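Entry type: protein chain
Record version: 2
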Amino acid sequence: MNEVNTTLFIPLYGKAMVSRQGIILKDPDAERIWDAEGFPLRGRAKSKWLAYNMAMRAKVFDEWTEKTLKENEEAAVIHLGCGLDSRCHRVNHGSHAWYDCDLPEVIEVRKRWYTETENDHMQALDAADPKTIRALPDHSSAVVVLEGLSMYLTNRQLHDLFLTLRQKYRKVHILMDYYTLFGARASKYKNPVNEVGVTQLNGIGNINEVIRGTGIRFVKEHSFTPEHLVNQLKPAERFFFRLLFTGSVYGRIYRLAEFVSEESSL
């Protein structure tokens, strides 16, 4: 896999670490995959603080996905840039169709660890290529998970992705994390992905400019570090963690936004 694909091991490590500690989220898949596929991480990539942050981010996505599915009985889940994540096992999605999607070389590795079922599927695609998004199976509505992906797409590619999703599904719900322009510039020097060879990330200046004309609107921002998750850390760790990953400074770098489309006549 190339440098971008290798970044999937950073959140995998974080989820495996907290799962073994019995906090934030339980992820036996991350534990067993990391034991077999993991490699020595360097610098910030192996920080326990980042591991906590990655696990909390995953849990926030899990909780949002499960809640949104309960409110949309016919929706399918489209997990773009799924990597080796086990969200399809962590989230109770009942009879909802679930599509774990990533580049072909990632899906090839993923198939060594996951098995497709009647409801759980894997599909190779390129989120930067609208043709591959249009090739996704048809459903009336979709819950789209965009975790740890937007920073590898240009603003134009993100716009085209949102537009294509809007054109394909009558209703779309999206949760996406993204870097601000300031965050992307800072990440060139101080980002864990640098440890696996990634040196170029993209940021967003005005999210409304990116989604303009797509038929999808911004709903609200979510916290990466809600109190009920931070409080699972040891008391001595909470203070330092809050300094690193909460507050207005962190919000100037990295954000988590929810989007929704209106009903159409499709």
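Comment: The beta strands are 76-80, 98-102, 120-124, 141-146, 171-179, 216-221, 254-261.
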